[in-house]
Amino acid sequence: MKLFIGYASTEGQTQKIARHLMDRLVGQGHSVELSALSEAGPIDLSRFDAAVLGASVHVGHYQSVLSGFAEAQADKLTAMPSLLLSVSLAAAGHDAEDWRGLETILSDFAQATGWTPAEVVQVAGAYEPSKYDVFRRFVMRRIIAAKDPETDLDWDKEYTDWDALNAQIDAWVAKITT
Ligand SMILES: Cc1cc2nc3c(=O)[nH]c(=O)nc-3n(C[C@H](O)[C@H](O)[C@H](O)COP(=O)(O)O)c2cc1C
User: Fold this and answer.
1) Residue 59: CB within 6 Å of ligand 1?
2) Confidence (pTM)
3) pLDDT of residue 42
């Protein structure tokens, strides 16, 4: 199978996840084209059997480059097997309100772009104070202190569950190839 993986990433975790996915799919014998949506030129999705788009949540939204791409490619994305990787810190916990928030972000995104992903994988991202400016560090420290009181707020912490992600991706690939 030939797959397109396009991603948007502000601090780098979605990029890491997208690269991980590429390595896994290539290891399984698939052909993958990986593209940072911010740098991608025009892409003809009809060259691919399936598409994975990934982006992260910042202040309740995915990166606008994802929305622009999804809107421009909505018809093709709808006609092919597609998956959205939604990366956030809300997905790192079990707070019902946080998860309802993720659903709202997703439905707003689908309404705005005209693309309702056939499959969505909610992925826990990372807390990376080493990459934040002073303001972001202040805001994120307060959020993480409330969510994960045990953690050392001065250090980066990855919440991504790689095994769970692998299992979800493998299940999706099995579904679209059978
Ligand atoms: C300024 C800022 C705002 C964020 N806003 C949210 C948010 O509204 N909801 C959420 O679940 N996570 C939020 N996050 C967490 C990010 O989604 C998480 O850190 C993710 O791993 C970032 O992925 P990236 O490195 O690919 O950009 C925010 C992070 C930052 C730095």
Assistant:
1) yes
2) 0.97
3) 87
